[in-house]
Amino acid sequence: MKMSETKKGLAFAFIALFLWGIHGPAGRFLALRGINMYFVASLRFFIGTAVFFLFLLTKKRVTIDIKDQLPLVLIISLVGVCGNSVLYHLTLRYLSGTLVMILENLSPIFVLLLVLLLDREKPKFIEIASLFLSILGIIIIVLGKESFLDLKNHFYIGVMLGILTGITFGFYVYFSARLVKPLKNDPDKIISFLFKIFLISAVLMSPLLFTKGNLPNEFSEWFWLIEMGVFQSGLAYIFWNYALSFLPVSSASILFLMTIIFTTINEVLFLHLRLNAFLIVGGILIIASGYFISKNINN
Questions:
Q1: Over 246-292, what HEC string results?
Q2: Helix (DSSP H) and strand (DSSP E) numbers for the chain
Q3: pTM (2 decimals)?
Q4: Region at 213 (left for phi over 0; alpha for psi -120 to 50; beta for the rest)
Q5: Distance between CA atoms of residues 284 and 288, nearest Å
Q6: pLDDT tens, residue by residue, 89-118
Q7: 3-state secondary structure of 35
Q8: Which of 101, 126, 147, 212 is surrounded by the most beta carbons within 10 Å?
Q9: What region does 122 belong to: left with phi over 0, alpha with psi -120 to 50, or beta?
Q10: What is the rounded average pLDDT of the residues 53-67?
Q11: Is 216 in contact with 35 (CB distance < 8 Å)?
C-alpha cells in the first residue's frame, strides 16, 4: 500500500526537524570556540549548494532557469535564506542553541499572519489551539532561563536577534511553500528551485568569507562546520521542502516547533545543558502541539 501524501509529508518533515535539531548545538559549539560566525554562515551554504548540485547531477536534472519566478526567488534568497542564516549565527554568539531555536520557532506566528493578510484565509481552530500550546511551552521554557549557560552577556541583544530570526524563517516558510506546492508531482524540480535559491544565496553571502575573525583550525571545528553544510543546509532543506509540497503551510510551520525538543536533547548530551521543570513542562506542551497538529492535519 502506498503511503498517503500526508504521511509522506510528515515523514519528510520529521527527518528535517531531527537534522535541524543538531544545528543549534553544532553552531553553539563553534560560537563558544570563538569561530567567525559570518564565515560559518557563508561557507555552509556553499556546501549545501554543492549537496543540491550533486543530487541533481545523479538525477541528470542540473538546470537553472534564471527567469523562472526570479523576483520571488531573489527575495526568498535575500531575506528568507541569507537574512535568516546571518541572524541565526549571530544569535548563537549570545544564547544557547536551545534558546535560539525557541525564538526562531516564533515563525508560525508570522506565517499565520501572512496567510491571513495575503491569502485572506482564516486559521483553523486546531492551528490556533496548537499554536497556543506551543507558545505557552515557549513561555514556560524562557521562564526557566536560569538553566541555560552563558546568558549574562548581551542577553537582550540575543533575544532581539532571535526574534528577527523567527520573522525571516516565517518569511521563508510561507513564500517557499508557494514555489514548491505546484511541484509536488515533480520532486526533482523542487530540488532545482532549492539549488537556484541556495546558489544565489551563497553568492550573495560570499563577501562574508573574507571578514575578520578566527577560522576553524581543529578537526572538530571543521567537522561540525561541514556537518552543518551537508545535513542542515543541504539535506534538511531538501526534506523540509518536500514536506511543504504535501502539507498545509500553517500546519508545517507549527510542526517546526519540534526542533526545540531535538535541540534540547543534543545540548543536554553534548553541551551539558541542565534540565529543570520549566524545560520539561514546556517541552511536553510543544510535543503535544506537534502531536495534535499531526493527527488533525487533514481535518
A1: CCCHHHHHHHHHHHHHHHHHHHHHHCCCCCCHHHHHHHHHHHHHHHH
A2: 14, 0
A3: 0.79
A4: left
A5: 6
A6: 999 888 888 888 888 877 777 777 787 888
A7: strand
A8: 101
A9: beta
A10: 79
A11: yes
